[in-house]
């Protein structure tokens, strides 16, 4: 196989963003890290000719989804705690 290598930041950003969806509370931090890595990856991909732009885009979207889910569950948890 002689294909271009995948960008490491895109891979790590995707994995971290995916983990952020499933890890409670600390997932917000993971999502931010994933978003930052996935925003940096396309610039490196253009400069180096590597692959992984779709992976970076998917990681970015997953990071956004993770933040929204984490904030939703945090708000619901606090509301449930205060309702008691």
From TrEMBL:
It comes from the Bacteria. Residues 10-71 form the DUF4190 domain. InterPro entries: DUF4190 (IPR025241). The chain crosses the membrane at residues 12-38, 59-83. Keywords: Membrane, Transmembrane, Transmembrane helix. The keyword Transmembrane helix applies. This is DUF4190 domain-containing protein. It comes from Bacillus daqingensis.
